[in-house]
Design a protein that fits this description.
The chain has 420 residues and is of the alpha/beta class. It has helices at 32-41, 84-99, 104-108, 123-136, 143-146, 153-162, 178-191, 208-217, 249-254, 280-294, 312-326, 337-340, 347-361; strands at residues 17-26, 29-30, 47-48, 61-62, 112-117, 167-172, 197-204, 240-248, 261-270, 303-305, 332-334, 363-364, 387-388, 393-400, 404-411. 55% of the residues are buried.
Length: 420
């Protein structure tokens, strides 16, 4: 691969980076096995929102996490001091470490990075504080809730729970592309040898602020999310967390770890074209940057996990950009948001996990709720039923408000990588 031939700033060869652990909290499953089974089955996480009062909204479906018991995963922190989104991120990190076959104590002596992407941070708690202040006055605002609203808690809480001392704990707030931004950050840190491992991903909790914002924009679907369908009506807000364990190939082989996939490269850009409208040329350019960083020709990509929100503008713009890069017969292009809803900062992290599972388990997840493909979205979106497939290289797209774009390229691990 092209990056293996380059040198980092110290003159040492760049390391190959692999995924050895996956942690998932989502509306269609908690834990990697349940998540994989739900993706293959095309399960929907959609249902009535219960996390806040939806009185006054004509429709109020979302994709909430149900059955989540944080005390199963969080034992070293006082749960009263941990917000909903941070609970998701800590639990997913715990799962990723365990899935990688590691103990937290093993990581304590190593240099690490904890990087979590988000859109809303702990806005779920901010919603509550504002409601209490308006109703009862600011003196009635609970101090415990006020103390946990910093978005930095999404990563710092992971380090605290796992007892990680030699780590940089960061949060990237590039909205709905933030998960891929975090994975790119971890990839760079591991491949240059700056750290021994990276726990990266994204987390968000469903909140009134974001639901009402999308509702006012007219982009909230009344029932389910139908990406690429000619009758699609918008997004459903969702929640959850996805955290991935990144480490060098050398480290993974030394401890005989299971390898889900190799991170081949990524691309980022921000065009600031419009607050909410995607820009086709910028999306095209971001995909080209990612493919170049990975040393991959477009013809080698077997599947694209699209941003695929289910809005008119996003789906058309993204599919046109895909055809700009891949020509008239692009790879199968799916939207996991049809199942998960739009999990905001967690979206591209959960999709990256889905991509790794697709490579490992040899299938392409479906785009569910699909009836008829919009003629302006000229792709095979794998409607409604998963298909079996040998996947060598998969592309994961993330796009966000403000023109923030992030694309990650994953590949099937091979002991020897042919020159591309």
């Amino acid at each position: 691969m092209s990056t293996a031939a380059l040198d980092d700033v110290s003159g040492a060869p760049l390391r190959r980076v692999v995924l050895t652990g996956l942690g998932v909290v989502s509306s269609i499953g908690i834990g990697v096995d349940e998540f994989a089974a739900s993706l293959r089955a095309g399960r929907s996480g959609a249902g009535p929102i219960s996390q806040f009062d939806t009185t006054g909204f004509a429709h109020s479906n979302g994709c909430e996490v149900v059955g989540f018991e944080p005390e199963q995963w969080i034992s070293n922190l006082d749960l009263e001091n941990v917000g909903r989104a941070s609970r998701f991120s800590v639990a997913a990190a715990r799962m990723a470490v365990a899935d990688a076959g590691l103990e937290a104590e093993e990581l304590a002596s190593q240099r690490g990075l904890v990087c979590i992407g988000t859109t809303d941070g702990e806005s779920h708690d901010l919603d509550q504080l504002v409601e209490i202040e308006l109703r009862d006055g600011h003196e009635s605002m609970p101090t415990a809730v006020a103390g946990r609203v910093s978005p930095l808690r999404l990563s710092i809480s992971i380090a605290q729970e796992l007892g990680l001392a030699d780590v940089e704990a960061t949060v990237i707030a590039t909205a709905c592309a933030a998960g891929n931004y975090a994975i790119g950050s971890g990839f760079d840190a591991v491949r240059t040898g700056e750290v021994d491992y990276a726990l990266c991903g994204g987390a968000d909790a469903i909140c009134r602020k974001t639901f009402s914002g999308f509702y006012r924009l007219g982009t909230m679907a009344p029932d389910v999310c139908r990406p690429f369908d000619k009758d699609r009506k918008g997004i459903l807000t969702g929640e959850g967390a996805g955290v991935l364990m990144l480490e060098s190939l050398e480290s993974a082989l030394a401890r005989d770890a299971r390898i889900y996939a190799e991170v081949l490269g990524y691309g980022l850009n921000c065009d600031a074209y419009h607050q909410v409208a995607p820009h086709q040329e910028s999306v095209t350019r971001c995909m080209e940057l990612a493919l170049r960083d990975a040393g991959v020709d477009p013809s080698q990509v077997d599947m694209i996990s699209a941003h695929g929100t289910g809005t008119k503008a996003n789906d058309i713009t993204e599919t046109r950009a895909i055809r700009d890069v891949f020509g008239d017969q692009p790879p199968r292009t799916v939207s996991m948001k049809s199942m998960l809803g739009h999990t905001l900062g967690a979206a591209s992290a959960l999709a990256a996990i889905g991509c790794a599972l697709a490579i490992t388990n040899k299938f392409i997840p479906p785009t569910i709720n699909h009836v008829t493909t919009d003629p302006e979205c000229q792709i095979d979106c794998v409607p409604n039923e998963a298909v079996e497939a040998e996947l060598e290289i998969v592309q994961n797209n993330g796009m966000a408000f403000g023109g923030n774009n992030a694309v990650v390229i994953l590949g099937k691990y091979k002991s020897e990588v042919a020159a591309r």
